[in-house]
């Protein structure tokens, strides 16, 4: 199980190492949009939507890595002040009773929309936009799966840490 958990960690690291470049590309595209609009009087809805797509991909696909490196949003009213054992218990509870069920529910309830979007190859958000809303919606199940896998890997690490102690 530990080997599988480490493989999931590596997968999320690999995804993060690829999508981190979207931040730079997104800034450059946005810069070109602003220059095009205010200097040359040129506007492109597709270019504007590409920034939206990159922004969504950056956050949705990077969430698993964020969870891996423990940089996610945490409500740590008590977490920072408790012992390591209590933190581990809070983490296990959070994964088993909050994160995994919520990601499973999100995956279940979003899947029909994603499936229908692929069925009709859902078109652009705006006239002249990118004709690939189905790809944008596909980020939802990808997000859920990456988070679910990383959560399971973290649980394996937490239980392995307990048995090693």
Molecular structure report:
By secondary structure, this protein is mainly α. It is built from four helices and no strands. It has one domain. The protein has helices at about 1-40, 45-70, 85-120, 135-165. It is elongated, with a radius of gyration of 20 Å. The model has no long low-confidence stretch (mean pLDDT about 95).
Write the layout of secondary structure elements.
Blueprint (H helix, E strand, L loop, with lengths): L1 H37 L6 H24 L15 H37 L12 H32 L1
- The total number of structural domains is 1
How many strands in all? 0
- Taking all residues together, what is the mean pLDDT? 95
- Which spans have pLDDT < 50 for at least 5 consecutive residues? none
Using only C-alpha atoms, the radius of gyration works out to 20 Å
Structural class: mainly alpha
Shape verdict: elongated
Percent helix range? over 70%
Instruction: State the end-to-end CA separation.
Output: 17 Å
**What string, H for helix and E for strand, traces the elements in order?**
HHHH
Beta strand %: under 5%
How many helix segments? Answer: 4
Biggest sheet layout: none
């Amino acid at each position: 199980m530990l080997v599988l958990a480490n493989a999931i960690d590596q997968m999320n690291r690999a995804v993060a190492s690829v999508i981190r470049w979207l931040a730079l590309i997104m800034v450059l595209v946005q810069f070109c949009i602003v220059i095009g609009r205010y200097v040359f009087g040129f506007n492109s809805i597709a270019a504007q939507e590409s920034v939206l797509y990159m922004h969504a991909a950056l956050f949705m696909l990077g969430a698993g890595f964020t969870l891996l490196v423990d940089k996610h949003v945490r409500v740590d009213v008590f977490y920072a002040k408790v012992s390591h054992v209590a933190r581990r218990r809070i983490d296990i509870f959070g994964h088993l009773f909050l994160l995994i069920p919520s990601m499973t529910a999100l995956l279940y309830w979003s899947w029909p929309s994603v499936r229908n979007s692929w069925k009709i190859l859902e078109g652009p958000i705006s006239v002249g936009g990118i004709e690939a809303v189905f790809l944008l919606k596909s980020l939802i199940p990808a997000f859920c799966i990456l988070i679910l896998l990383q959560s399971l890997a973290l649980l394996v690490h937490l239980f392995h840490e307990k048995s090693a102690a």
